[in-house]
Amino acid sequence: MNTPLLYRLLDTDPAAGPAELLHRARAGRHLPHLVLSALAGDGVRMGEAARAELGRAQDRVARYRRLAAGLARSTGVRAIRGLPLAGYYPGGLLRPLDTLDLVAPDEAALWQAVIRLVTDHPVEHIDVSLLGERPHHTAVTLHWPAEDPLVDPWYRVHVSTAALPGDGRAVPVRPFLVADEHVECLIALAESRLGEPGPPPGPLALLDVAALTGRPFEAAETAAVVAAYRLAPEVADLLDHAAEHVPLGPLAAVRAALAPELAAEHRRRGEAPAARRVPARHGALLRRTVIRHSWGEARLLGHTPDTCLLLTPVADYLLAPAAGAVDTPATRTAALDALHHWDTLC
Question: Which of 52, 122, 211, 244 sits at 20 to 30 Å (Cα–Cα) from 308?
Answer without folding.
Answer: 122
